[in-house]
């Protein structure tokens, strides 16, 4: 039974768009608001570097590992149902984050947020695909993406004000009106949609992916925060890699029924695009975690000022991405995908001028603006190229996998930043500079990947 056969006409599809925008905004807000609150959160709990890393990664880990399964569950059991469940879980978990009396409970609530996001994100897009057709579908997805960028832009400012005036737990209360609005609209107006034949309910693969990423992340986090390779570090990293190897074996055995069909990797361009995504988003994610943290801890910025400092990012990316998408359709994506990461790396090297008393307009802002320009050059061509590198019937799976790879890049980068987060004063600045140099090198590797592996990459229009 196909998706159309399971749908019931209900309301204007614009209500579906509104519900999906509100639901997905939960994830976009969560991805940007926490960074300005990390110093206050660390001080509140008396947390060490490893605990700060896990505040971030407890959310990223389940989101990265379960994103593909979340879409498959929606195909199988109903996308509206999974959107409602994921949004409800995220909203309740946000309240628990705000009320958590200990770090352990905060980690658990953050993990629940990640699971909720893994369910709501792919199903919000799938519901839009079912509600719209043709050119209107492309417009709806564009509105969905633009709204997410706007939410990511506003969230650090609101979050910074809340941290300054109410306290860091209040940043999680931002999610409550978004979540309740999405639940109400989806429950009343959104039609159910599913396609049981497309559902890849690969529970074994999901478990192995989560365990493998979890073990690897735990070992890297422990190593980066302590600087020592002890028995626990070695054992967890080896176990993590073993689980990931077993995951690949299971996916190969399941063939087209796998959560991640390995047949997609028969194309050199698809491999190159996802390697580029991992490198670029890993480097960029590291910089975006460290910049506001260093501005607050070493530069004397308030959380609001740190949020304002990052404002060029969403503005330039939102303005530049559509322009670069159109240009890449004419000249091909290989050139912007080679140039974009280099520009991001140049912005990171400009960040080496940031010290504890650096003026914003002449030192901090140029570095952030150049990084934003590089991402604006690369984001739209990268997304479209991923869709163009696979058979049309696999575009949903390819897009979901690429999104998961981007988050895994951030996950691994965060796991490696303990050596910086554990420092203070001049040592924090020195560690920050070293991390920026390493991230710039990774950006260069992403550019080299585009040059060497993307010879015949194509683009697909919405």
Describe it.
There is one protein chain. By secondary structure, this protein is mainly α. The protein folds into 3 domains: 1-199, MFS general substrate transporter like domains (Growth Hormone, Chain: A), CATH 1.20.1250; 203-258; 265-462, Growth Hormone, Chain: A (Up-down Bundle), CATH 1.20.1250. It is 78% helix and 0% strand. The chain contains 17 helices and no strands. It has helices at residues 13-33, 38-45, 49-77, 79-99, 103-131, 134-165, 175-189, 203-226, 231-254, 268-297, 303-309, 312-331, 334-350, 360-388, 395-415, 418-421, 425-453. The longest helix has 32 residues, at 134-165. The chain starts with 12 loop residues before the first helix and ends in a 9-residue tail after the last helix.
Amount of helix: over 70%
Examine the secondary-structure arrangement and name the CATH architecture of the largest domain: Up-down Bundle
The fold-level CATH name of the largest domain is: Growth Hormone, Chain: A
Q: Give the total of beta strands.
A: 0
Encode the helix/strand succession as letters. Answer: HHHHHHHHHHHHHHHHH
Give the uncertain stretches in residue-range form. Answer: 1-9
Tell me the strand percentage band. under 5%
Q: How confident overall, as mean pLDDT?
A: 87
């Amino acid at each position: 039974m196909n998706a159309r056969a399971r749908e019931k006409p209900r309301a204007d599809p614009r209500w579906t768009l509104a519900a999906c925008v509100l639901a997905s905004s939960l994830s976009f807000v969560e991805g940007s608001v926490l960074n300005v609150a990390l110093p206050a959160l660390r001080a509140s709990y008396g947390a060490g570097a490893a605990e700060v890393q896990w505040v971030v990664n407890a959310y990223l880990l389940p989101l990265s590992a379960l994103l593909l399964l979340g879409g498959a569950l929606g195909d199988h059991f109903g996308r509206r149902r999974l959107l409602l469940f994921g949004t409800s879980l995220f909203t309740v978990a946000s309240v628990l984050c705000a009320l958590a009396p200990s770090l352990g409970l905060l980690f658990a609530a953050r993990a629940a947020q990640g699971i909720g996001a893994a369910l709501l994100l792919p199903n919000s897009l799938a519901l839009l695909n079912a509600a719209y057709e043709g050119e209107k579908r492309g417009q709806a997805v564009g509105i969905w993406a633009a709204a997410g960028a706007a939410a990511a832009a506003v969230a650090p400012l609101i979050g910074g004000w809340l941290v300054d005036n109410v306290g860091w737990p209040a940043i999680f209360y931002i999610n409550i009106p978004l979540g309740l609005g999405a639940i109400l609209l989806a429950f009343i107006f959104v039609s159910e949609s599913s396609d049981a034949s497309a559902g890849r309910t690969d529970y074994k693969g999901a478990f192995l992916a989560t365990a493998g990423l979890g073990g690897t992340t735990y070992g890297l986090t422990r190593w980066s925060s302590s600087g020592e390779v002890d028995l626990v570090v070695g054992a967890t990293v080896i176990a993590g890699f073993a689980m990931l190897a077993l995951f690949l074996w299971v996916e190969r055995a399941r063939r087209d029924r796998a959560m991640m069909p390995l047949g997609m990797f028969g194309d050199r361009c698809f491999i190159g695009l996802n390697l580029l995504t991992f490198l670029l988003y890993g480097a960029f994610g590291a910089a975006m975690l460290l910049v506001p943290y260093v501005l607050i801890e070493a530069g004397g910025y308030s959380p609001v000022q740190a949020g304002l400092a990052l404002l060029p990012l969403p503005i330039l990316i939102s303005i530049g991405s559509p322009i670069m998408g159109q240009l890449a359709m004419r000249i091909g994506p290989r050139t912007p995908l080679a140039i974009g990461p280099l520009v991001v790396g140049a912005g990171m090297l400009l960040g080496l001028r940031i010290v504890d008393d650096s003026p914003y307009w002449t030192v901090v802002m140029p570095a952030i603006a150049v990084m934003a320009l590089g991402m604006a050059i690369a984001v739209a061509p990268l997304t479209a190229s991923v869709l163009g590198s696979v058979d049309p019937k696999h575009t949903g799976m390819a897009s979901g996998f690429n999104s998961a790879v981007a988050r895994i890049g951030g996950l691994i980068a965060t796991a490696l930043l303990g050596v910086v987060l554990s420092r203070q004063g001049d040592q924090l600045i020195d560690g920050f500079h070293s991390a920026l140099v390493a991230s710039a090198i990774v950006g260069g590797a992403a550019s080299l990947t585009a040059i060497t592996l993307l010879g015949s990459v194509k683009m697909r229009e919405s």
